[in-house]
Amino acid sequence: MIDLRPFYQQLASSPISNWLETLPLQLKQWENTTHSDYERWCKIIDFLPQYPAQINLADAVEAKLDTPLSDGEMQRFLHHLKQLMPWRKGPYHLYGVHIDCEWRSDFKWNRLLPYLSPLKDRLILDVGCGSGYHMWRMVGEGAKMVVGIDPTELFLCQFEAVRKLLNNDRRANLIPLGIEQMQPLNAFDTVFSMGVLYHRKSPLDHLSQLKNQLRKGGELVLETLIIDGDVNDVLVPEKRYAKMKNVYFIPSILALINWLRKVGFTHIRCVDQSITTSEEQRKTEWLENESLADFLNPHDLTQTIEGYPAPKRAVIVANKP
To answer: Would you say 180 is a known binding-site residue?
Structure first.
């Protein structure tokens, strides 16, 4: 099982040390309800080799070896990494292996980075962080400490596998909880929520939870699906959206800005809009499931398979007063 005690030690001397009042018990309860494959995934991490590597987090998530793995070592290494499929957010370049994930998450990162307050020396929370690709890019920008939260056991194991290959870097940590389980810490300099809002049954509650984690003057980076329209336009899919059954509210940008104002954010600005393309999200050898091409109407790529507007995303940056 993954040992989170080193993270507790980091918390003890951090601005979020009061999280220790609730976190250990929550994680103990989480361990009692884990996925049936969790133990197997943890063993795969143990099987992975670990060598001193040259680390690049500035423009990739990369660990290079001075001496390449032998053919036999490479085959075993690939086998272990593929036991942790599907790999959704990336890419990763590890010991000579290119993990070509479903999402080119570097595209999103490059779009939003110019609009962020400098991350150097910041305490950062990444909500719904997946396997942690963006967390490592935050570390690459000089963040002092990055905490990601995501309750999915496979993502935790993928994150810990990558951490091991990045010389066991402890500047980033993934905690298997949802934000609704976090006590209000009011301490993070920056909070990211990317690809989460439309999965929330109560989007205003989610925005309030994000605000409750920020310090005064802290910055929210919110990335989500949007539709075209005015301040009153919100899409509520009847059953599924792009084959996803857990999509509840997709607002227009103006509606989203209005929501953010209602929960108390200020200096709200939309810094990017982009249509999701098959270059950014696609099926690869690291993903056995369907991907974007399967979610769109084959006769009209401007629509989902259900007839809704095809995925379009926006990045909103705002501040806690």
So the answer is: yes
